[in-house]
Design goal:
With about 1500 residues, this protein is mainly alpha-helical. Helices cover about 70% and strands about 0% of the residues. It has a two-stranded antiparallel ribbon with strand order 1-2. A hairpin with a 2-residue loop joins β1 and β2. The longest helix is centred in the middle third of the chain and has 27 residues. About 45% of the residues are buried.
Length: about 1500
């Protein structure tokens, strides 16, 4: 093996590493190391010299180390020997250096030298002389038994090496050496061992010497001076035949010696040869126990060598030994002779006669083993042409005599131990038969004439035919040419494995006919008839030979041209039938064959005999005389046989009058007692009548006369059915059923044709009488003996076969496909029976009906039958599985479809396995092969049967149903468009039942998925027609379709297309809602929505919008009535809720796929979204949950939703406006999306009459400030006008609030010059909402007012200051607003606005007072008013005049604050302003507030009233 550079480097590195490990003292792993090294060295071409030297060193060292384990030392020696392939001289030097003269060496050094001599003969021979000289000095030093054994091994291998050199020295690469010097040393060593060690050797030592003996003696034989000594040692070798353990090695050494003797042409002494003969024969013929196979083979090889060298002496020895009566010796010698003959040794052919005489000695031996051995030897001698003409004939005769004798012995058992010897005798018969078959007629030259018909009756005729080929002229000269042509044809049927007895006999009888016609000699024919009659006594009645003799005799009479002789013979047979043996069988056979040419004579003689004979008297006579006469039943059978063999042209004209009428007459008479008809259950009568009718039916059918009408047809079928009905349903003891079924089958084919109903009645009657029988084992249990049980099984098998053939005949003789289906349907209930044995029978019958060259009507449908049968290829019994598979395959052949026969047969054989998984796998493979051939128009029928199977069959068959159904749909699903609705309807019909069976239900779902993979749109439309709300089954179907990754996307697209179509006019009908419900089921199983998300989202959002506030529309196709449980209320589905649920499901999946995020509304979003009043809020929240980073997705959604802003549906416009209002604050969407158009449409919507739409539009305008500030500046006028207009929508504060928020956002981007035109209007409108009930409005208005402070400019500064004065009280009071956010906003706006009033100093006060926790209102107002009084009494007065409005505020804290502020104002007004107070009105109002429900207000009012009184007193103003 050549290694690459890299591999070599790696290998050398590996060896170096290994060497490093060898250097260690640890010996634990050395065994593995040396094993590995051996493999590497032996598989490497080149090794580095340094590595080789190191390896030699370590291997030699460890090999000689006595402290090492023997296993390691042996492996080290193996490595050392292997290294010789790389550097022989170094290895030999290393070994020789440890192999020294007069020193006892290490045993492994000796073994290494021996192995080197064997493995490297050419290199070792030059060193051999030195080695042998050294070894010679060591032998006397060896005392240990193991060391002696080692030297013997060395002697054995050195001898083999030198023997090879001696005989093949020319092949060696150096000049010839003196081999005699080497053999001299071998002789000395061998003589020392034989003289000193052998006499006292232990068994182990003896074995070593025996092994060395053969090679050493073989070498010494080449020297004439050593031959005498060498051959003198052979007796010692023969004497070692003592133990099985050593015998083989003795024989092996002996074989080597004999081979060398032949090679050197050395003649062994006679005494030695005989001794060898005897010892070898004992090795083969050990009587107590059989020889060891290996030893026997070696001994046989020795005999073959002896047959070559001494054939004459060997045959004499065999002849002498075989005369003993020892069975083992005889069998052994015959076997050895056969082996020698088969070896085709030329010198042995000179002794053929001696061998034949030896064989004849034992031809009388009755031993089975001896007879078998003789037969096999004769066969081999014939094959090798070892048969002499004169001496060999008895050998051939022996073969025939053995066969014939055995046949008679087996027919007439007389020995008490017959059953014990039956197997042995059968083996001899089989052997003789095989020998006969192989005989070459040219070799057989014996002038023996055997009775041809009698000898050939059992298909044993190859040898006999061979004899007949050479004796035709002995029989009759006219036969030579005929037999020369016809006899070879007779051999042809024998060449096959399955020979038909009927065919064989027919050919023989035909030859007999032709021979008789060829001879055309009446006297000769008459004589042959007499000869046949004489042979009747030679055979038993049940023998095949006897039955054939009857047929031959009848055929001979048929060919006889002497009518009187024929007439006389028939009469003789009728009156004295006992001469034929079995009178009924004999006379029936003879008269039947005779009728082939003499019908008139036979019928005439029969009629005369019938009229003359008194059957009753004859029966009585026969009882007394002991001689049986023919009965009416016998004659009835004869009529049937006559009809069967009669010439067809003559039969029909004689049938009714001369045959049928006579049979019926005889049957009627047999059924009468004293002239009265009775129900006769005589089995023989029934069987005979049935047989006769069957043969008549066959005869009429064979006549092939289409115009013949068999008038007795219905009557005879009625008889047969009556017989069948009378049979018990719990047992099977008689063959009546079987025979009657056969009769019915043949009768049914005859004209007139039966009606379909008649066919059905006949078949149903027979099926009901056979299939319900108890299991076969139960039937057999009724038998008392094994023979009874076998008979019952025979009847069972024949009955089932007959029923199958009857059904097959009636079905396929019909030209109407529907009628065929009707007849087959009779088996349906049995094919799915819960009883295994009934199913088994039904399937066995089905297999017969559907297989073997069927011609079905052209339009015969196989789909339904296929669906019925195929699943049972996985049934519980192997017989059912096989029959189901055969039937399934047969269906396709019926349609003329040719399948992969060999592959299907192989698969079918695999169904014998009991492993369910194997059955399923095979059934699946069959389905894949055949499914593509199912006619497309029959798929529906197939599927209907499969669905029925899923409902009713056992679990394994159910699984097979599912697999077949799915496989067929995969193969043919694409072509089912025309049948699709019917298929789906069928599947839906089975769903309620299949749901109860989980596995079946899953297969059904898979089927729909498979259909959908080809016809998604149709399946979707069909499923969408299911009424709402979808029931559990419909939901499951949607989910099943969605769970298929390959079709889920296709399914979603189909639903999208459907929903898009339904919503084209922005109106949601029930169809659209159905689509949404379907989408819910599809998405809920985790179907990926990434690719279709934009379309799904926009359509579902549109659907939610269009169904807001709607009731469920009426479904045009829903007529389902819902059965409600007691107490259950009918739930009317809410279309908007259904749509929202789907959208929710979509969003959940979108979040899982990173397309959306959690809504800020949480789960409340969907409630808000589905409510008409809050829908827009939900849409906004939904829009905010969009994943803006997925701007590609959002842009697609925006593009598809753009049309919503101009929709005819107000709800949809609101939805679109709400959605876009949120998106308009996203800069990225302004950058990539076309929101400019949206901005324009939003502006238009801001003027819409619908308040919600205006609100959403204004929000969108406001959010533009966040998303596209530049657009605000560009379209400021447009946007401001639209938003400001919203401030006037006082009826809807939502619009106002949205406008305020939008203004705030926009104004933050504009300058005072940008808003100068609208400033006053904005300020005035903003002030109107400071006291709005809605917190959001108030808060937004305050925020906006604060922002407006920065936009006053010079133009509006004074105006704004005045508006601040008017608004100041609101800001002060709402510091304590119920909403804390408003309080904070008021603080901020005060800080911004007070400077407009020239009261900057108050800013510090406000900042200080409001910086931390909000102070008490009273304290704050008093401190504030103190500061204000010092700066501007006018503002205090304004606060006072505006405070009355807040006394009636709905908020308690505002009322309280207003009173407290009034208290502080009054307290700090100057006397001048106090005088201006409307004291009466103020007092009245405060008095009223003292009655306020709020205690805080009451106390504040009381305090303010006291302050007022005090100030009035101070100013001397009376109240």
């Amino acid at each position: 093996m050549t290694l690459s550079t890299e591999e070599s480097i790696e290998m050398f590195g590996d060896i170096n590493l290994t060497l490093g490990m060898l250097n260690k003292e640890d010996i634990v792993n050395k065994e593995d190391i040396y094993s590995h090294l051996t493999s590497v060295i032996q598989n490497t071409d080149i090794l580095d010299d340094a590595i080789v030297q190191r390896l030699i060193y370590y291997a030699s060292k460890d090999m000689r180390d006595n402290n090492m384990l023997r296993e390691i030392r042996m492996l080290a020696g193996e490595v050392l020997v292997s290294l010789a392939a790389h550097d022989f001289n170094s290895v030999m030097y290393e070994v020789q250096s440890n192999f020294r003269i007069l020193e006892l060496p290490n045993e492994f050094v000796v073994l290494a030298l021996a192995e080197l001599a064997t493995s490297y003969v050419s290199q070792s021979i030059p060193f051999m002389m030195m080695t042998l000289l050294t070894m010679q000095t060591m032998l006397r030093l060896a005392e240990d038994e193991r060391m002696k054994g080692t030297f013997c091994i060395a002697l054995e291998k050195f001898s083999k090496a030198i023997y090879k050199y001696v005989n093949h020295w020319r092949d060696f690469p150096y000049p010839r050496l003196d081999a005699n010097r080497l053999s001299d040393k071998i002789f000395m060593l061998f003589r020392y061992i034989m003289e000193n060690w052998a006499p006292l050797a232990s068994p182990m030592q003896t074995l070593s010497i025996v092994k060395a003996h053969g090679p050493t003696v073989s070498l010494l034989l080449h020297r004439e001076d050593f031959r005498g000594y060498a051959l003198g040692q052979v007796p010692w070798l023969l004497n070692q035949y003592k133990d099985k353990e050593i015998d083989f090695h003795v024989t092996q050494s002996l074989k080597q010696i004999l081979t060398a003797a032949v090679l050197y042409d050395i003649g062994l002494p006679r005494s030695l040869r005989r001794s060898i003969f005897i010892n070898l024969l004992q090795q083969i013929c050990r009587a107590p126990e059989p020889p060891v196979k290996e030893n026997e083979m070696e001994a046989s090889s020795c005999f073959l060598i002896l047959a070559h060298s001494n054939p004459g002496e060997l045959t004499e020895f065999f002849d002498e030994q075989i005369r003993s009566n020892n069975e083992a010796i005889r069998v052994g010698i015959l076997t050895l002779l056969r082996l020698a003959v088969n070896a085709d040794e030329p010198r042995l052919r000179d002794h053929i006669i001696s061998i034949e005489r030896t064989v004849k000695i034992v031809m009388g031996d009755l031993s089975t083993k001896v007879r078998n051995s003789v037969l096999l030897l004769i066969q081999t001698m014939c094959e090798k042409s070892y048969i002499e003409a004169r001496e060999g004939w008895p050998l051939i005769d022996y073969v025939f005599s053995q066969f014939a004798t055995l046949n008679r012995n087996l027919e007439k058992p007389v020995k008490t131990n017959f059953h014990e010897n039956e197997k042995e005798e059968e083996s001899v018969r089989e052997t003789s038969l095989e020998v006969l078959k192989t005989l070459d007629p040219l070799v057989i030259g014996m002038p023996q004439v055997i009775s041809m018909p009698a000898s050939l009756g059992e298909l044993r005729g190859a040898g006999a035919i061979g004899l007949l080929k050479i004796v035709p002229e002995i029989i009759h000269p006219k036969l030579v040419d005929l037999w020369k042509t016809r006899l070879p044809e007779l051999l042809q049927p024998l060449e096959g494995k399955n020979i038909s007895t009927v065919l064989w006999e027919t050919m023989l009888l035909q030859l007999l006919k032709e021979s008789l016609w060829k001879i055309s000699d009446v006297a000769w024919t008459i004589q042959l008839t007499q000869d046949f009659k004489q042979q009747m006594g030679s055979y038993s009645n049940n023998s095949t030979e006897k039955k054939f003799l009857w047929k031959a005799l009848g055929t001979t009479l048929a060919c006889c041209q002497d009518s009187d002789f024929v007439n006389s013979q028939i009469k003789e047979f009728l009156t004295a039938p006992n001469q034929l043996g079995d009178q009924r069988q004999g006379i029936t056979s003879i008269l039947g064959y005779c009728a082939e040419n003499h019908l008139d004579i036979v019928l005439k003689v029969l009629k005369t005999f019938q009229n003359q004979e008194k059957f009753f008297m004859n029966r009585c006579k026969s009882l007394f005389s002991g001689k049986k006469s023919l009965t009416k039943t016998d004659v009835m059978v004869i009529y049937g046989a006559v009809a069967l063999h009669a010439p067809k042209k003559q039969l029909l004209s004689r049938l009714n009058q001369d045959i049928i009428s006579q049979v019926l007459f005889l049957h009627g008479q047999c059924s009468q007692v004293l002239g009265m008809s009775v129900m006769n259950k005589d089995m023989d009568l029934q069987m005979s009548f049935t047989r006769s009718i069957t043969e008549i039916g066959i005869a009429v059918q064979d006549a092939e006369d289409q115009g013949f009408q068999f008038s007795y047809k219905e009557m005879l079928i009625g008889y047969m059915l009556d017989f069948i009905r009378d049979e018990p349903l719990d047992s099977l003891a008689s063959p009546i059923r079987w025979k009657a079924l056969i009769a019915v089958r043949y009768l049914s084919k005859l004209k007139p044709q039966l009606s379909l109903q008649d066919h059905l009645n006949i078949l149903e009657e027979n099926i009901r009488r056979l299939l319900p029988l108890p299991p076969l084992e139960n039937l057999k249990s009724e038998g008392q003996t094994d023979k009874d049980k076998e008979h019952i099984q025979f009847l069972y098998e024949r009955s089932m076969d007959a029923l199958g053939k009857l059904l097959k005949t009636m079905m396929w003789d019909n030209v109407n496909a529907e009628d065929c289906q009707e007849m087959f349907n009779l088996l349906r209930m049995w094919l799915v029976s819960q009883k295994e044995w009934e199913r088994e029978r039904a399937f066995q019958i089905t297999a017969k009906v559907l297989t073997n060259d069927i011609e079905a009507p052209e339009n015969f449908k196989i789909g339904s039958l296929l669906g019925l049968l195929a699943p049972h290829s996985c049934d519980t019994l192997p017989t059912i599985r096989q029959a189901a598979a055969s039937s399934t395959i047969g269906l396709f052949y019926i349609k003329g479809i040719h399948l992969e026969v060999e592959r299907l047969q192989g698969l079918q054989e695999g169904l014998e396995s009991d492993d369910v998984q194997v059955q399923i796998k095979i059934s699946s493979k069959i389905a894949k092969i055949v499914s593509k051939f199912i006619p497309n128009e029959e798929i529906l029928m197939f599927l209907e049967e499969m669905l029925d199977g899923l409902e009713s069959l056992n679990p394994t068959c159910t699984k097979a149903c599912g697999i077949w159904m799915i496989t067929v749909l995969k193969q043919q699903g694409a072509a089912l468009e025309d049948q699709l609705l019917e298929i789906l309807g069928t599947i839906y019909h089975h769903m309620p039942v299949l749901r109860q069976k989980e596995e079946s239900f899953q297969f059904m779902l898979e089927a729909i998925s498979q259909i959908a993979s080809f016809h998604m749109d149709t399946v979707v439309v069909n499923l969408l027609q299911k009424p709402l709300p979808f029931d559990r089954d419909t939901k499951t179907l949607w989910k099943a379709l969605a769970e298929k990754p390959a079709s889920s996307g296709k399914l979603l697209q189909a639903l999208i297309d459907k929903l898009e179509t339904e919503l084209e006019d922005d109106i949601a009908r029930v169809e659209a809602i159905s689509v949404a419900c379907a989408m819910y089921e599809v998405i809920s199983v985790g179907t990926s929505v990434t690719r279709l998300y934009p379309e799904l989202f926009t359509l579902l959002l549109k659907l939610v919008s269009c169904t807001l506030g709607q009731k469920m529309p009426t479904c045009p196709w829903s007529h389902r009535r819902h059965v409600m449980q007691q107490g259950e209320q009918q739930q009317i589905p809410d279309p908007c809720r259904l749509s929202t649920a789907t959208l929710k499901c979509l969003q959940a999946q979108a979040m899982r796929e990173g397309l959306a995020k959690e809504s800020d509304e949480g789960d409340n979003l969907w409630t808000v979204l589905s409510s008409p009043s809050t829908h827009h809020i939900g849409v906004c929240s939904l829009a905010r949950s969009m994943a803006v980073w997925q701007h590609g997705v959002i842009l697609d959604i925006m593009e598809q939703l753009l049309s919503s802003l101009t929709s005819s549906s107000e709800n949809y416009r609101i939805t679109g406006a709400a959605f876009f209002s949120e998106l308009m604050k996203e800069p990225i969407l302004w950058k990539h999306g076309n929101l400019r158009n949206v901005l324009i449409l939003m502006d238009q919507s801001a003027w819409d009459s619908n308040a919600t739409l205006r609100q959403m539009a204004i929000r969108g305008l406001g959010n533009t400030a966040s998303g596209a500030p530049h657009k605000v500046k560009k379209h400021k006028q447009l946007m401001l006008e639209s938003i400001i207009r919203g401030l006037y929508h006082l009826a809807r504060t939502e619009v106002v609030c949205e406008s305020l928020k939008a203004l705030k956002k926009i104004l933050e981007l504009l300058t005072d010059r940008d808003v100068s035109f609208y400033f006053k209007e904005i300020v005035l409108q903003t002030r109107t909402f400071f006291e709005d009930e809605q917190d959001d409005v108030r808060l937004t208005a305050i925020f906006l007012f604060e922002d407006l402070a920065s936009l006053t400019g010079r133009r509006w500064k004074i105006f704004f200051a005045e508006e601040i004065k008017k608004s100041l009280i609101s800001f002060l009071l709402h510091l304590w607003d119920p909403n804390p956010k408003i309080g904070v906003a008021c603080r901020d706006v005060l800080m911004v606005c007070i400077p407009f009033l020239g009261l900057q100093e108050l800013c510090g006060v406000l900042d200080r007072l409001l910086d931390q926790d909000l102070p008490r209102a009273r304290d704050f107002y008093r401190q504030f008013c103190v500061k204000m009084a010092k700066k501007n009494q006018e503002i205090l007065w304004i606060l006072h005049t505006h405070s009355f409005t807040f006394f009636t505020s709905t908020w308690e804290v505002i009322r309280s604050a207003a009173v407290k502020l009034t208290d502080a104002v009054v307290l700090n007004l100057t006397s001048q302003y106090v005088e201006l107070l409307d004291r009466e009105q103020l007092t009245t109002r405060l008095q009223a507030l003292r009655q306020d429900p709020c205690i805080s207000v009451q106390r504040a009012a009381e305090a303010a009233l006291q302050t007022l009184l005090r100030r009035c007193k101070e100013t001397s103003i009376p109240l």
